[in-house]
Design brief:
By secondary structure, the protein is mainly alpha-helical. The chain has 28 helices and five strands. Helix 14 packs across helix 15, helix 19 packs across helix 20 and helix 20 packs antiparallel against helix 21. The protein is globular, with a radius of gyration of 26 Å.
Length: 669
């Protein structure tokens, strides 16, 4: 219980800072609190790291100082309260429309289910196991953020760390890994608040704005990542927060927008790909706003966001490390036809996502859409509206029901173009294969596909018809701009997750599709049908599995649910054969779940060993147990055998080298 106090203090600091702004807007106050909370956790872990003081005592001392400063500022500002009363008119508007109430209620249920997963299900997302969480464990055991010696993958050292610094704070504060998904979940909430606020500031009504925010939560990747320790939602939270704040009119909002930008650059480089959009939004407001935003960005980056770049510069002589902007992709995932144009087309092709819907369900939805669309159009005509408005209303009602077919045929069209251009995406020589029909490779789902790709086109048409202003057009440009800039990277199969950044940034514009109750009902039915299947059929946390419900899983159970054969047996053997508090060595390859070495309660100290000097390094650290890869580094096992260590399989995935006199496994690291 004592360990929760630094976390509670950090929350209080964020709320005091937000209240001290005396904002009449609840959206602005909530976003300010979120930015302050992230900055607090990042600043504290970064400042304490050189002292190796990222422990409970260090966190408590740092939070005491920050709490005193925030409390003094709040007192001097007249002890203002957060403007919760400002939400009352919006709540009344929502309550007056039953469709919006149901839409919002379904969103709350979805968020509630994701929160249960985030707080109870053990981590088993592959990226998280191989570097997100494994780097956090190494930092925690060291006492701060540092360059991890002999790290199995350079991602553990060179990728921007702000999202994982939040996890580090939480791990240390509560003394366990239970809150590993909280930064992503909180980021999702911040995104939804910012989407709603931006939609309102762009001129859309309350109901459409609420539904546009909730609709984003139904996008497959957003729902899947919300209960993981990945960092795409954390990254996406900053550009949309900046955009929402720049669309406001309060004096301090441009500076806060800059803070969001500075934090985003410290979380993930994908945020940089939409910075031109954020800059244009600031310039639309004028030079003063742009300069204030720049000042906020510099302040946030210099105090918090700079951490990863400083470590890279100190250890490699390069701001971005040896990886640079390169995505660390295994050789077996490299495209057959590599080129910038091919990469852009490949990612676009993967965006067309019919997801987990069966052919039967797709046909059923198409039939419903074919009936509902004309009925909606006829209803509008009977109310005396023009034929063009009736056709538009009918099309909007039909669109979500036919979205799976749009995704399928759109994907076919992109595949045909790619083949004619000389870099097929399908077939024996294709870079990818057939369109995704699984959970793990899902992008945004069929509704997300038509919204993400359709909103920029709809916005352009509205602008040309003088029904949208330049701010709408600038935000819509984030989608094509992101594809063009992302295409400069080498393709891998999971690049669609980076699209969460422009998806969040353009989500407020989806309110244009949700202006009528009929359209909201249609989009809601299909979107929640898809996302319900996504979150309950996710093979990593299925609602029904041989191990029970997701909240009943042990770490060993979660390991069995990964898509890598043998991992479950390896983790089960590790739990059986290695003491819970032992110090354990690791000679692993880059794409292996190093996080499991620390144990379910993070009690084992993990020391990564250099392959060529693994045996002498094991003796130097007084290790009794070493886990060895069965991949390219398997040859290290021979050195342990020659020194008299017993080497045995850990399932079929790893090897375990045990010293002749293992003892209790204690070590000096």
């Amino acid at each position: 219980m004592v360990g929760v106090l630094p976390l509670a203090a950090a929350v209080l600091v964020a709320l005091l800072i937000a209240a001290s702004l005396r904002s009449p807007s609840l959206v602005t106050a909530l976003l300010a609190a979120y930015l302050a909370f992230v900055a607090d956790l990042g600043l504290v872990t970064w400042a304490l790291s050189p002292l190796k003081a990222v422990d409970r005592a260090g966190l408590a001392a740092a939070e005491a100082v920050l709490l005193a400063a925030a409390g003094a500022a709040w007192w001097m500002r007249g002890r203002p309260r957060l403007p919760f009363g400002a939400a009352v008119p919006a709540l009344r508007a929502v309550a007056a429309d039953p469709v919006t109430v149901v839409f919002l209620g379904a969103g709350v249920v979805l968020l509630g289910y994701e929160l249960v997963l985030a707080l109870t299900a053990p981590a088993n997302n592959w990226d998280s196991l191989t570097y997100h969480l494994s780097r956090v464990v190494a930092w925690m055991q060291h006492g701060g953020v540092y360059r991890i010696p002999n790290a199995p993958t350079p991602r553990m050292n060179e990728y921007q760390p702000l999202a994982e610094q939040q996890i580090l704070y939480l791990f240390v504060a509560v003394g366990s890994g239970a809150l590993y998904a909280l930064p992503q979940y909180l980021a999702q909430l911040a995104i939804l608040v910012a989407v709603y606020g931006a939609a309102r500031r762009l001129g859309f009504d309350v109901r459409a704005a609420v539904c546009s925010a909730v609709l984003l939560a139904t996008f497959s990747l957003v729902a899947l990542e919300s209960s993981t320790p990945q960092n795409d939602l954390v990254a996406a939270s900053f550009p949309i927060s900046a955009a929402c704040l720049l669309l406001g009119r309060l004096r301090f909002e441009p500076f806060l927008a800059g803070v969001a930008v500075g934090l985003g650059v410290g979380a993930k480089l994908t945020t940089v790909l939409v910075l031109p959009v954020v800059l244009l939004l600031a310039l639309v407001r004028g030079r003063r706003v742009a300069l204030e935003g720049f000042a906020g960005a510099v302040a946030a980056f210099a105090t918090v966001g700079v951490a990863g770049y400083a470590l890279n510069l100190a250890n490699t002589g390069r701001l971005l490390g040896y990886l640079g902007t390169h995505i660390d992709t295994p050789s077996y995932e490299q495209p057959i036809h590599p080129s910038k144009l091919a990469t852009g087309v490949d990612v676009l092709y993967e965006t067309f996502d019919p997801s987990v819907l069966s052919d039967h369900l797709i046909r059923l939805l198409w039939i419903v859409g074919a009936v509902a669309g004309p009925l909606a159009a006829a209803f509008v005509l009977r109310r005396g509206r023009s034929l063009s408005r009736a056709v538009a209303a009918g099309a909007l009602v039909a669109l979500p029901f036919v979205s799976p077919l749009v995704a399928i045929h759109g994907g076919h069209g992109v595949a045909s173009l790619a083949s004619s251009w000389g870099f097929p995406v399908r077939g024996r020589l294709g870079n990818i294969g057939e369109l995704n029909r699984t959970v793990l490779f899902s992008a945004f789902g069929p509704v997300g596909t038509v919204v993400f790709l359709g909103v920029p086109l709809v916005t352009l048409v509205a602008y040309l018809r003088r029904r949208a202003d330049v701010r709408h057009l600038v935000i819509a440009a984030a989608v094509p701009l992101f594809y063009v800039l992302l295409a400069q990277e080498t393709f891998n199969y999971y690049m669609t997750r980076f699209l969460i950044v422009p998806a969040a940034l353009t989500a407020p514009l989806a309110a244009r599709l949700l202006r009528t109750p009929a359209a909201r009902a249609a989009f809601g039915v299909v979107a929640f049908l898809v996302v319900a299947k996504i979150v309950t059929e996710n093979p990593l946390t299925p609602l029904h599995s041989r191990f029970g419900r997701p909240w009943q899983l042990t770490q060993v159970d979660a390991a069995y649910l990964t898509d890598e054969t043998g991992v479950g047996d390896a983790v089960a053997a590790l739990e059986r054969d290695v003491p819970a508090r032992a110090c354990i060595g690791g000679v692993l390859s880059g794409d292996e779940p190093a996080f499991f070495l620390a144990g379910p309660r993070l009690e084992r100290r993990v020391v990564y060993l250099p392959v060529a000097e693994a045996v002498p390094d094991a003796y130097r650290h007084f290790l009794s147990y070493v886990v060895i890869s069965t991949g390219v580094n398997r040859w290290a096992a021979g050195g342990f055998r020659r020194q008299g260590w017993h080497v045995e399989p850990l399932g079929s995935y790893w090897l375990l080298a045990v010293a002749r006199h293992a003892g209790d496994g204690s070590c000096r690291a």
